Input
Amino acid sequence: MDAGGGLTAAGGRKHRAQSGAALVEFAFVFPILFLLVYGVIVYAYIYVLKQSIVYAAQEAAEAAVAVDPSIDDAFAQQQTVVRATAVAALSWLPESQQARVVGSGGERVEVTLCPMGTQDCPTDSDALRVTLRFDIANPSSLFPVLNLYIVGSVPPLPDTLTASAVVRI
Output
């Protein structure tokens, strides 16, 4: 610096050399930062999807309790109520994603009777199991997946999100 506080010619060149170094450092750091931010966004959405599917399964199973089990076609009515409730609970999803979970009218919602004493069922009464599946590994993937040379797929995603709820009848 000269007496007036300005930069000398040598100081100006030093500043330009440092700005080139900053550009090179940014070129190395940006891809890592981008992948971290992308991963956070993807996993946050996957988490929201998983929690929504769990909620929809629970709500659908609870809705089945409203049907009187002593009527002749109780199971058919329970299926109808369960499927309608699951569709309503996931109505916030885009249509293409909603169709991957519940189908166009709820036909992908699995409603099964759970006889007492079987796996994950109450031992003292019959129950109804509601299962929802979201196929993430579908050919029209939810998010673009980057295939990196050494790392592999970024971000790694599960093939399927599954939620199940059991309710006593």
Observations:
- The helical segments are 9-64, 74-89, 95-102.
- The CA atoms of residues 42 and 162 lie 18 Å apart.
- DSSP finds three helices and five strands in the chain.
- Residues 9-168 form one domain.
